[in-house]
């Protein structure tokens, strides 16, 4: 049955007159009369009696009216719901994040919830490699991953993170330059994250230790970053963590970001001892790659959803409001739509 016919029945019953009902429906009175006649033919009887006081439902019309009202109400509700889906104000969104997105991703989700409360959101903690496969497979709409990302995925660079030293507040503070940190770590007990949980972070730490000859003494592994920080707080050892871990560390743990050292360790140019610009730049690149990496939001451009686009707009707005894409000691990186990232890969 055409919902327009039921809407005509409800309108005439509510208004008590064909002329008023027609104006309310934005149609002519003859068109409304035709709709009522069509409905009467379908139900097999007259629905209204007309008199000096307007139109009154017949017994048949009064019998049909409650169900017609309910169907019209549900149709209007469905129309509104469809509009919400079309505008991305309803639906579902699956977001993934890893260790380096541990602060930005939840902030973006919270901001999105406030703006679009009708969308159901799931937030999953997984490695960058797992997120990339989930995005490709359609199980995630957006992932916050360590860059670079595969070329078949679109990406938005959201921040640059750096390695940092997590140590008990009462321990002697580490230096902030890479060489100094490496010397400070030699022989110290360290707590590590398991490779299965954070393969990208583990590779980053291994790159740093290899480049700067840091030789700490591993004493324990943990399967999540919160446990690593708890073990540091308990005095089991220190740890190399993303600088963003400062946001989840307890007050008894100090997280000190590692800087790039200003190009320290450059190659000397003959007897003068000067460091050539090319050599200094090359060393600086190595240092930056060892201590910092970029984080990006990635998605599958072949799957287009308004909900995801609305979420990415929230992410862009959040990045702009943060004022920069770098941690305080990180190497700055302007936000963009695509990027090659820095080694190691996810």
UniProtKB/TrEMBL annotation:
The keyword DNA-binding belongs to this UniProt entry's keyword annotation: yes
Domain HTH lysR-type: 1-58
Record Gene3D superfamilies: Periplasmic binding protein-like II, Winged helix-like DNA-binding domain superfamily/Winged helix DNA-binding domain
Keyword Transcription: yes
Pfam families found in the cross-reference section: HTH_1 (PF00126), LysR_substrate (PF03466)
GO cellular component, one term: protein-DNA complex
CDD domains, per the entry: PBP2_LTTR_aromatics_like
Keywords, alphabetical: DNA-binding, Transcription, Transcription regulation
GO MF, one example: DNA-binding transcription factor activity
Family: Belongs to the LysR transcriptional regulatory family.
PANTHER family (alphabetical): HTH-TYPE TRANSCRIPTIONAL REGULATOR CYNR, TRANSCRIPTIONAL DUAL REGULATOR HCAR-RELATED
UniProt name for this protein: LysR family transcriptional regulator
């Amino acid at each position: 049955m055409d919902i327009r016919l039921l809407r005509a029945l409800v309108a005439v019953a509510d208004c008590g007159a064909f002329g008023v009902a027609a104006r309310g429906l934005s149609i002519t009175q003859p068109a409304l009369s035709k709709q009522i006649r069509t409905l009467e033919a379908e139900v097999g009887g007259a629905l209204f009696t007309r008199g000096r006081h307007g139109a009154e439902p017949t017994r048949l019309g009064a019998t049909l009216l409650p169900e017609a009202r309910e169907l019209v109400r549900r149709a209007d509700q469905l129309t509104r719901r469809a509009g919400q889906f079309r505008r991305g104000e309803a639906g579902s969104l699956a977001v993934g994040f890893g260790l380096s997105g541990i602060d930005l991703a939840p902030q973006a989700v919270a901001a999105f919830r406030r703006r679009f409360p009708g969308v159901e959101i799931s937030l999953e903690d997984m490695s960058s490699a797992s997120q990339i496969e989930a995005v490709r497979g359609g199980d995630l709409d957006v992932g916050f991953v360590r860059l670079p990302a595969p070329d078949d995925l679109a990406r938005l660079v959201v921040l640059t993170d750096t390695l940092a030293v997590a140590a008990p507040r009462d321990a002697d503070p580490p230096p902030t330059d890479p060489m100094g940190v490496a010397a400070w770590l030699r022989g110290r007990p360290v707590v590590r994250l398991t490779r299965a949980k954070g393969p990208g972070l583990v590779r980053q730490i291994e790159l740093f230790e290899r480049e700067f000859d840091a030789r700490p003494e591993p004493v324990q592994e943990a399967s999540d970053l919160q446990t690593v920080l708890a073990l540091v707080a308990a005095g089991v050892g220190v740890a190399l963590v993303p600088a963003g871990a400062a946001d989840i560390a307890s007050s008894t743990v100090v997280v000190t970001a590692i800087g790039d050292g200003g190009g320290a360790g450059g190659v000397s140019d003959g007897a003068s001892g000067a460091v050539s610009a090319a050599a200094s730049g090359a060393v600086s690149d190595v240092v930056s790659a060892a201590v910092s990496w970029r984080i990006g939001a990635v998605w599958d451009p072949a799957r287009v959803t308004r909900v995801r686009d609305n979420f990415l707009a929230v992410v862009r707005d959040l990045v702009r409001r943060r004022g920069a894409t770098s941690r305080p000691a990180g190497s700055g990186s302007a936000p963009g739509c695509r990027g090659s990232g820095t080694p190691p890969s996810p």
